[in-house]
């Protein structure tokens, strides 16, 4: 078995900052695999509650032709399990990596390692990477193969740490350029999951907010409405809606009343009309009261007497 140890010092860095930049999300690792390993399809899962995640990527085999012939592939798919443990919260963490290579005979080659990131008192952090390589091969070639694996591991670690340091420097510069956001008001969780924002308990705090220097705008914390105010507002809206409904009903009642009056007028007119007399009754009345010459029955009359 071969063991390799590589160390680096990162300026203007703490263990927490380094973790936030390199490991908190998948951005740094995906960028590394895309730019260095040529694998833009690398996938890193989220961290579990116990600090474990899985990475899947393709790794090129930069090994001598003899070993590459044995492997039979120029690049191999890798499933890597990563586990992080904070030895001292915010100051020291340890990341254990266990890659599993996927090619025929991969169980003959074992590589495992971990790195430890520690905050130093001078404002820097120290990265120490330790990798162990072993090969289950016949004894005449075992030492040679393990030596080749160690050389490859050393180059890989050196390339990886160089990338991480550069990535951190860019990330840190971007963080320092971002404006600092105002702190959110404190929230207290109560039973049942409700959250209550701290209210201003002293009137002097209100006066102090109003006495800010001229040209400056004081930030007033958000005060959520009270439940009593919400209920009163709802009742007022219901009352206003009820009043509008009552007025609409009164208007409808007045409209119906006017329609009834109009219908009564129509009925009165229809009832007051005299019935039309029949033809027989009209003829009898005419013959009894009018002279014969004026009769129009049968088309007679003065015109009929002159007919030849």
From TrEMBL:
Composition bias, Gly residues: 297-308
Coiled coil: 242-269
Compositional bias of kind Low complexity: 282-296
Keywords, comma-separated and alphabetical: Coiled coil
Stretches the record annotates as Disordered: 274-308
Designated name of the protein: VASt domain-containing protein
